[in-house]
């Protein structure tokens, strides 16, 4: 099987698993991956990740032109913006999972540069700082520039009233990072207003030194 065929199977399998884990619902959310020739595979528009077939997946050019498969997600443009700013990114995951979206709906007036407090080492290792991107309606191409600006320094971000975008050096890494983000958001709500022992700057610096992104 070709590299493209393997990656198509991989995207479909992860999409099915994310749906089964209730991190994806309905036809919301999209996955993408970079191919060696500079083109991209993106899940198609209005598809349910739980029933996605490899042959449905769109292959597009770096300019977003459809080359093969079904029409791509209408949010493909911000995937491309992420790849443009992060040459090492080989995959991008964007879902509408409950706790992360809930966090995106809160007012973060004083914490827009890092929405979630530092709770666990794996949050720091896999997600890093999580900035909030201002709200744009679905499909608004102006979102691409907002994503691009944040992607220069962040591998993950939270779209206000929408949900996260997470990149990774592989599809597995992007999925694992997304799951870590969702679990961190869940912890954030479970802890609520209780007094919490956040990781201090020294602990964060040591994690980043030992486990560089």
From TrEMBL:
One of its GO terms (biological process) is pentose catabolic process. GO terms for molecular function: aldehyde-lyase activity; metal ion binding. It catalyses: 3-dehydro-4-O-phospho-D-erythronate + H(+) = dihydroxyacetone phosphate + CO2; 3-dehydro-4-O-phospho-L-erythronate + H(+) = dihydroxyacetone phosphate + CO2. Its cofactor is Zn(2+). Its EC number is 4.1.1.104. Keywords: Carbohydrate metabolism, Lyase, Metal-binding, Zinc. The keyword Lyase applies. One of its GO terms (cellular component) is cytosol. Gene3D superfamilies: Class II aldolase/adducin N-terminal domain (3.40.225.10). Residues 9-189 form the Class II aldolase/adducin N-terminal domain. InterPro entries: Aldolase_class_II_sugar_metab, Aldolase_II/adducin_N, Aldolase_II/adducin_N_sf, OtnC. SMART domains: Aldolase_II. Belongs to the aldolase class II family. AraD/FucA subfamily. PANTHER family: 3-OXO-TETRONATE 4-PHOSPHATE DECARBOXYLASE-RELATED (PTHR22789:SF0), FUCULOSE PHOSPHATE ALDOLASE (PTHR22789). Catalyzes the decarboxylation of 3-oxo-tetronate 4-phosphate to dihydroxyacetone phosphate (DHAP) and CO(2). This is 3-oxo-tetronate 4-phosphate decarboxylase.
């Amino acid at each position: 099987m070709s590299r493209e065929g393997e990656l198509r199977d991989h995207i479909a399998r992860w999409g099915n698993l994310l749906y089964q884990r209730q991190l994806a619902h309905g036809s919301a959310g999209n996955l993408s991956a970079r191919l060696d020739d500079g083109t991209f595979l993106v899940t198609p528009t209005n598809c349910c990740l739980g029933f996605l077939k490899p042959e449905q997946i769109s292959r597009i050019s770096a300019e977003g032109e459809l080359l093969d498969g079904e029409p791509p997600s209408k949010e493909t443009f911000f995937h491309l913006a992420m790849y443009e700013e992060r040459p090492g990114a080989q995959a991008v995951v964007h879902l509408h999972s409950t706790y992360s979206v809930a966090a995106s709906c809160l007012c973060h007036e004083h914490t827009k540069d890092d929405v979630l407090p530092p709770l666990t080492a794996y949050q720091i290792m896999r997600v890093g700082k999580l900035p909030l991107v201002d709200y744009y309606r679905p499909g608004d191409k102006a979102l691409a520039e907002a994503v691009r600006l944040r992607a220069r320094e962040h591998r993950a971000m939270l779209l206000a009233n929408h949900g996260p975008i997470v990149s990774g050096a592989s599809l597995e890494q992007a999925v694992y990072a997304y799951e870590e983000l969702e679990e961190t958001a869940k912890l954030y709500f479970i802890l609520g207003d209780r007094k919490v022992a956040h990781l201090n700057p020294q602990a964060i610096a040591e994690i980043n030194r030992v486990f560089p992104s």
